[in-house]
């Protein structure tokens, strides 16, 4: 049984203490992407590799694989799980104690065993993408390990919190994309399309999401980013809305974890919905000249 993280407990661990846990989970998410790359038709926008987030179990999951199977990463535990079309658990394994190579091998063997074998048995080769990821010792063939108790749980709470916030904010907002977790940057996000009559790749967009920490800001933070930015002067940006600040290494508004946690839990979601509303209005105005 995998329980829903209690977002009322958000902040139970200091935000900067989560770096090791979120790096391990970031690398673990690449296993799901490898399965998607091997078994699904590659899409130009990479949407085949986008991961869904399930708040009831704090799990990341692939898009439906052949036979409507799904490979998931349960964040708080963490463990890998293969489920069928009815979400019945077929097989699972804890990640702790495994190396990335072990986890890839386990995943490939399970998929080969359980996926349909007609007309021929599947020969599944899982390969990690050759792109830059933040360093962690799991890249040096060290196993996943529980370095600090409950830190995986706290990273899962940030994803659950962000999913709840983004879902409520975009529920009645037109022209938004599904909420996904993107394995490369390991952020949970959605896009608002400002030009719905244009192809998505040509539309101006506002990105809304949460990073659990990255090279820009090591602790979790919410972000609101305009695209494109080529006609926005970074030297003449307007005063940011309350609770937000302009990022120093990219063009976008950020709400750091310290600011999120300073808002009492019972007021946190409604307060941040108002902040996101003000931020998207400001960002939309910036893009009106592009």
Write the layout of secondary structure elements.
Layout: H1 19-39, E1 52-54, E2 59-61, E3 70-74, E4 79-83, E5 89-94, H2 100-114, H3 151-170, E6 180-182, E7 187-193, E8 205-211, E9 221-227, E10 245-246, E11 253-256, H4 257-262, H5 265-287
Antiparallel strand pairs: 1-2, 2-3, 3-4, 4-5, 6-7, 7-8, 8-9, 9-11, 10-11
What report would you give on this structure?
The protein has five helices and eleven strands. The protein is globular. Helix content is 29%, strand content 18%. It has two domains: 10-140, no CATH class; 151-287. With 290 residues, the protein is α+β, with helices and mostly antiparallel strands.
Derived from helix and strand composition plus strand pairing, the structural class reads alpha+beta
- Average pLDDT reading: 95
Question: In total, how many beta strands?
Answer: 11
Share of residues in helices:
25-40%
Low-confidence stretches: none
Beta-sheet strand percentage? 15-25%
Strand order of the largest sheet: 6-7-8-9-11-10
Number of domains: 2
Provide the succession of SSEs: HEEEEEHHEEEEEEHH
Radius of gyration: 19 Å
Shape designation: globular
Distance linking N and C termini: 50 Å
Biggest β-sheet description: 6 strands, antiparallel
Number of helices: 5
């Amino acid at each position: 049984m995998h329980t829903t993280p209690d977002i009322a407990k958000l902040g139970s661990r200091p935000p900067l203490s989560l770096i090791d846990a979120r790096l391990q989970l970031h690398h673990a998410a690449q296993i799901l992407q490898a399965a998607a790359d091997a078994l699904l038709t590659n899409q130009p926008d990479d949407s085949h590799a986008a991961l869904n987030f399930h708040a009831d179990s704090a799990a990341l999951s692939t898009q439906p694989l052949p036979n409507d199977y799904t490979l998931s990463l349960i964040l708080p535990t963490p463990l890998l799980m293969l489920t069928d079309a009815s979400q019945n658990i077929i097989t699972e394994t804890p990640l702790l104690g495994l190396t990335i190579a072990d986890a890839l091998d386990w995943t490939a063997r399970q998929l080969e065993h359980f996926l349909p074998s007609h007309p021929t048995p599947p020969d599944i080769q899982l390969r990690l993408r050759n792109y830059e990821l933040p360093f962690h010792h799991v890249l040096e063939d060290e196993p996943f390990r529980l370095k600090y108790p409950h830190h995986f749980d706290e990273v899962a709470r940030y994803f659950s919190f962000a999913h709840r916030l983004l879902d409520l904010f975009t529920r009645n907002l037109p022209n938004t994309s599904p909420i996904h977790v993107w394995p490369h940057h390991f952020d949970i996000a959605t896009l608002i399309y400002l030009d719905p009559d244009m192809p998505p790749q040509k539309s101006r967009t506002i990105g809304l999401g949460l990073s659990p920490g990255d090279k820009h800001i090591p602790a979790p933070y919410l972000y609101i980013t305009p695209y494109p930015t080529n006609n926005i002067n970074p030297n003449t940006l307007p005063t940011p809305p309350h609770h937000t600040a302009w990022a120093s290494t990219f063009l976008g508004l950020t709400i750091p974890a310290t600011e999120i946690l300073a808002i009492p839990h019972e007021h946190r979601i409604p307060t941040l919905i108002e902040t996101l509303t003000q931020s998207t209005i400001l960002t939309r105005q910036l893009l009106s000249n592009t």
